[in-house]
């Protein structure tokens, strides 16, 4: 991925003979911030002070604030119209979240003055209680149209279905939806009811249109593939600002997942722009929409802005982050191991194929409990959140890779259930879903061209140093993390496993100790997962 991009790439005309615009709206947006309050390195992990001083870092809330304020001030000074949106997942991903439970992120959002935020699935990582902590501090409208929280005493009345903003004398409607598989990827609990996202959005748009709102933006946390489906099926949308899939879009970078904006033909025959801005505060999206007198969208242009060293962090935010970081320093500064070369934990690999960090974590789990007779380990690729650079490894880096405070879970199950778990793991590989299974003590092949549920073949297990076919009827001892074992990421077949024990040591501690015993650690790829 190239790291030199500018905002406002070539405009895309949506009608021939474009007339003089009546109204232009600038949308500044981020998504999947994941508690990256401090700058990040090229691996999306916390950047060292040395690298930061050398200009090698990206993002961090102080750069996000500086660029948003710079653009917002310049646009408004020129008489323009601008809104600032967040497409969800402020939560989870660093020690700041682990320590402050979302309150720090909410404070910074209030300081920056976001106009609206979509609920992300990771806002529920600590249950409805976790989202309630965030809402206690939030000074930003937090919205999600397909959530029914009326049964939750913590959330009832605290989430809005939509919001209407008055911007330059025009009403801008913001509707929202959250991925309906959130009960599998997080912990919303039984009192949060999920409704179909497309049906809900259709209803919210119709309600706004009936109230005279003719400029409507969908602010969603459902993923790029679903964003495009929503743009194609929900009438009345003028743009979709998305998150969840961490998608990098650019009209100038051939390594991007698609153009920015991605134009989708809507149900009324008009083109609807779809945008995302990657993740972890590395980019700020800038979408510029132009409407005619009747509120019809006639052009869309924009691009991601790389928040590299050329963007000077806002000193007030730097100071506040440093103050919040003081209680964290002792833990994360501790050097626990050393890497001989970088360890790849990128989302693009660990959710698609065998990856170095997936092998490391799975082997660490298996090594910890092998004396109990455990022979199989499964780690969800979505539980791996960053890479690690060569050289000394700090506990802070390990916690950035494994931020969820998951514990080791051992259990007994049949070979048939192991195969079913692998099938679930590869069932959404084309969407980059976090359920992709990284393994140890196992080998398997999968074919993404086959229908979900019939993609896995050639499953082998290691017994006494040799590999042989898994026995569907045999009972195996296995290990995973407590999130997966209790049904997270669609692994419902493991929720009824026998003799389960979900209260083992923290996965980050287990991984750190495994690394410490193998200094300097050299990552491996050995062909345990074959993709046809």
Radius of gyration: 23 Å
Spans of at least 5 consecutive residues with low confidence:
1-19
CATH architecture of the largest domain: 4-Layer Sandwich
The global form is: globular
Strand content: 25-35%
First-residue to last-residue Cα separation: 25 Å
* β-strand number: 26
Number of domains: 2
What strand order characterises the main sheet? 1-15-14-2-3-4-5
Q: Which structural class matches the secondary elements?
A: alpha/beta
Strand count, sense and closure of the main sheet?
A: 7 strands, mixed
Features:
26 strands; 532 residues; alpha/beta; six-stranded mixed beta sheet; 5'-nucleotidase,  domain 2; Purple Acid Phosphatase, chain A, domain 2; seven-stranded mixed beta sheet; 2 domains; 25% strand
Question: What is shown here, in short?
Answer:
The protein is α/β, with parallel strands linked by helices and 532 residues long. 27% of the residues lie in helices and 25% in strands.
Descriptive account of the structure:
The protein is of the alpha/beta class and 532 residues long. The chain has 2 domains: 23-323, Metallo-dependent phosphatases (Purple Acid Phosphatase, chain A, domain 2), CATH 3.60.21.10; 334-531, 5'-Nucleotidase, C-terminal domain (5'-nucleotidase,  domain 2), CATH 3.90.780. It is built from 16 helices and 26 strands. A 7-stranded mixed β-sheet has the order 1-15-14-2-3-4-5, covered by helices on one side. A hairpin with a 5-residue loop joins strand 14 (283-291) and strand 15. Helix 4 (103-112) runs parallel beside helix 5, helix 12 packs across helix 16 and helix 13 packs across helix 16 (507-516). It is globular. Residues 1-19 have low confidence and may be disordered.
């Amino acid at each position: 991925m190239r790291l030199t991009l500018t905002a406002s790439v070539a405009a895309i005309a949506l009608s021939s003979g474009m007339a003089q615009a009546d109204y232009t709206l600038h949308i500044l947006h981020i998504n999947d911030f994941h508690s990256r309050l401090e700058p990040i390195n090229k691996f999306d992990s916390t950047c060292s002070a040395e690298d930061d001083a050398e200009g090698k870092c990206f993002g961090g809330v102080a750069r996000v604030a500086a660029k948003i304020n710079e653009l917002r001030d310049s646009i408004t000074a020129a008489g323009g119209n601008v809104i600032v949106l967040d497409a969800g997942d402020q939560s989870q991903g660093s020690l700041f979240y682990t320590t402050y439970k979302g309150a720090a992120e909410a404070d910074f959002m209030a300081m920056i003055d976001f106009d609206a935020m979509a609920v992300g699935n990771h806002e529920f990582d600590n249950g409805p209680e976790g989202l309630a902590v965030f809402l206690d501090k939030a000074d930003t409208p937090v919205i999600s149209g397909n959530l029914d929280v009326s049964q939750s005493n913590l959330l009832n009345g605290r989430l809005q279905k939509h919001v209407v903003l008055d911007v330059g004398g025009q009403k801008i409607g913001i509707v929202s939806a959250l991925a309906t598989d959130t009960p599998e990827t997080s912990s919303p609990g039984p009192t949060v009811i999920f409704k179909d996202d497309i049906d809900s959005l259709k209803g919210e748009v119709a309600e706004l249109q009936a109230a005279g709102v003719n400029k409507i933006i969908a602010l969603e946390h459902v993923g790029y593939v679903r964003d495009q489906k929503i743009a194609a099926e929900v009438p009345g949308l003028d743009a979709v600002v998305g998150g969840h899939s961490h998608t990098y879009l650019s009209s100038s970078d051939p390594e991007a997942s698609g153009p920015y904006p991605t134009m989708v033909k809507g149900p009324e025959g008009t083109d609807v722009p779809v945008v995302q801005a990657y993740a972890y505060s590395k980019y700020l999206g800038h979408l510029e929409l132009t409407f005619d007198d009747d509120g019809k969208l006639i052009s869309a242009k924009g691009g991601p802005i790389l928040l590299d060293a050329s963007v000077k962090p806002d000193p007030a935010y730097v100071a506040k982050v440093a103050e919040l970081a003081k209680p964290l320093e002792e833990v994360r500064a501790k050097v626990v191991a050393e890497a001989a070369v970088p360890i790849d934990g990128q989302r693009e690999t660990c959710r698609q194929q065998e990856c170095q960090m997936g092998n490391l974590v799975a082997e660490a789990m298996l090594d910890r409990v092998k004396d109990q007779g455990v022979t199989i380990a499964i780690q969800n690729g979505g539980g791996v959140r960053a890479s690690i650079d060569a050289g000394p490894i700090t506990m802070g880096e390990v916690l950035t890779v494994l931020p969820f405070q998951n514990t080791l879970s051992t259990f007994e199950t049949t070979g048939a259930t192991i195969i079913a778990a692998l099938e679930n793991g590869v069932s959404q590989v084309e969407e980059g879903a976090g359920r992709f299974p990284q393994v140890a003590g196992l080998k398997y092949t999968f074919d993404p061209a086959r229908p979900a549920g019939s993609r896995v073949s050639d499953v082998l297990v290691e017994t006494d140093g040799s590999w042989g076919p898994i026995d569907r009827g045999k009972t195996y001892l296995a290990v995973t993390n407590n999130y997966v074992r209790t049904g997270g990421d669609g692994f419902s077949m493991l929720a009824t496993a026998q003799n389960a024990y979900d209260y083992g040591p923290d996965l980050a501690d287990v991984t750190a100790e495994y690394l410490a015993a193998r200094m300097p650690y050299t990552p491996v790829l050995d062909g345990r997962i074959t993709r046809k």
